[in-house]
Design brief:
The protein is an alpha+beta fold. The chain has a domain of about 110 residues: GMP Synthetase, Chain A, domain 3, CATH 3.30.300. It is built from 3 helices and 7 strands. The strands form 3 sheets. Strands 1-4-7 form a 3-stranded mixed sheet, covered by helices on one side. Helix 1 packs across helix 2.
Length: about 160
């Protein structure tokens, strides 16, 4: 027999509170930068897969890390002493039937474009180093994209 436990809420429900405090991460926050860039990397890979194969191949590119650099600041400017490092991680299809996909180039180019468009004081060539750790997915995950079904199954 399963025991069911019910606990009563001992505080005012959120929707009835007069004030809600939330954290907002702005455009320059490392988490936001990573999320925006990886979203664009996924779009870039999807376009490349569609162009070459007529279908979107397996990829999960939602893991990244922006490692802090070091800058010497002063009023009106400063100097970057040690660049940031953007690490791209997770999975992407890198080859299909002998045709290679330029996954690393797509990831790095996409990041550089994003920095140019959104952070005007960050030079993506000088202020950021890039480390691409996107590896092929497992056979069990990539297999679902090879099946000739109208519905693609879950890939996780």
């Amino acid at each position: 027999m399963v025991n069911i436990l019910i606990n009563g809420l001992k505080q005012t429900p959120l929707e009835k509170q007069k004030l809600e405090i939330v954290e907002r991460k702005g455009l320059g926050h490392p988490d936001s930068i990573c999320d925006y860039i990886m979203d664009r990397v996924s779009v870039g890979l999807s376009r490349e897969y569609l162009n070459k194969f007529g279908a979107i191949m397996h990829h999960n590119v939602d893991k990244s890390l922006l490692v802090a650099g070091e800058a010497e600041t002063r009023f009106g400017g400063g100097v970057v002493k040690d660049p940031m490092r953007l690490i791209f991680g997770d999975r992407a299809t890198v080859e299909v039937e002998g045709v290679r996909i330029p996954v690393e180039r797509i990831a790095v180019q996409t990041a550089k474009e994003w920095f140019r468009e959104n952070l005007k004081h960050v030079d993506p060539e000088k202020h950021v180093r890039y480390q691409v750790e996107l590896k092929p997915g497992s056979a069990g995950l990539t297999d679902i994209f090879k099946r000739k079904s109208r519905v693609i199954g879950a890939n996780d």
